[in-house]
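Protein details
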Amino acid sequence: MKPKDIFSLAIRILGLVFLYHGLSILPMMLSGGFRNLLMAIIMIGWPLLVAYWLLRGAPLLMRLAYPDTPSANKNETPTGETLGLKADA
């Protein structure tokens, strides 16, 4: 595995941790009734949103960690490739 793949896997595992955290609070908040509805939304909502973003692969975080490096000249032919010229024999 490449380092980029390992980092992507670590991000998704962190997403599972946030998903577990958000879902583990759910029974406690639901037993409290509708008195603390706003608090329940905050305590359950933000970990689930972060989990969703991380499980999708956190594209912004991946771009920051592993930016794409464009080649210097895209018209340049790679080494070992023919130039398309025919040799007269």
About this structure: The mean pLDDT is 80. The chain is about 60% helix and 0% strand. The radius of gyration is 25 Å.
